[in-house]
């Protein structure tokens, strides 16, 4: 979360980092909500509102794994730090122009898929 609001010396867009923060927040809530079924609500009713951790552990693990998988995929589309660092390491100007054009094309595709 700190990654989204504190500007470290990276090459990722601050706007995209903030969008990723809100997306991750909403994704976690959405995936968790998908695991609350009528059976889960009925179990809470039967237990008079007491939280049964052993009953909830599988749902917690599944929702965490699914959320992190989707979040990792979306972050790979949105963040450009590694690509830009790779471009900065190119020394030859001829290769730099070629790499730069490829990078721009790649980033356009990544950001289009992200949004």
Q: What is this structure, in a nutshell?
A:
The chain is an all-alpha fold and 115 residues long.
Number of domains: 2
Unreliable segments of 5+ consecutive residues: none
What is the percent of helical residues?
A: over 70%
The total of helices stands at 6
Q: Determine the N-to-C terminus distance.
A: 20 Å
Using the CA coordinates, give the radius of gyration. Answer: 21 Å
Shape: elongated
The number of E-state strands comes to 0
Strand content: under 5%
Order of helices and strands: HHHHHH
Mean pLDDT: 85
> What summary fits the major beta sheet?
none
Q: Structural class of the helices, strands and pairings? A: mainly alpha
Task: Tell me what the structure shows.
The chain contains six helices and no strands. It has 115 residues and is an all-alpha fold. It has two domains: 79 residues, no CATH class; 36 residues. Helix 2 packs antiparallel against helix 4 and helix 4 packs across helix 6. The longest helix is centred in the middle third of the chain and has 26 residues. The two termini are 20 Å apart. The model has no long low-confidence stretch (mean pLDDT 85).
């Amino acid at each position: 979360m700190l990654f989204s609001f504190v500007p470290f010396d990276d090459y990722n867009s601050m706007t995209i980092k903030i969008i990723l923060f809100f997306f991750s927040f909403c994704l976690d809530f959405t995936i968790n909500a998908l695991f609350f079924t009528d059976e889960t609500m009925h179990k809470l009713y039967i237990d008079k509102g007491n939280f049964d951790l052993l009953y909830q552990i599988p749902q917690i693990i599944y929702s965490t794994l699914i959320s992190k998988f989707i979040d990792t995929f979306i972050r790979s589309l949105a963040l450009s730090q590694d690509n830009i660092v790779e471009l900065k390491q190119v020394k030859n100007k001829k290769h730099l122009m070629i790499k730069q054009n490829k990078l721009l094309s790649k980033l356009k595709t990544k950001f289009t898929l992200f949004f």
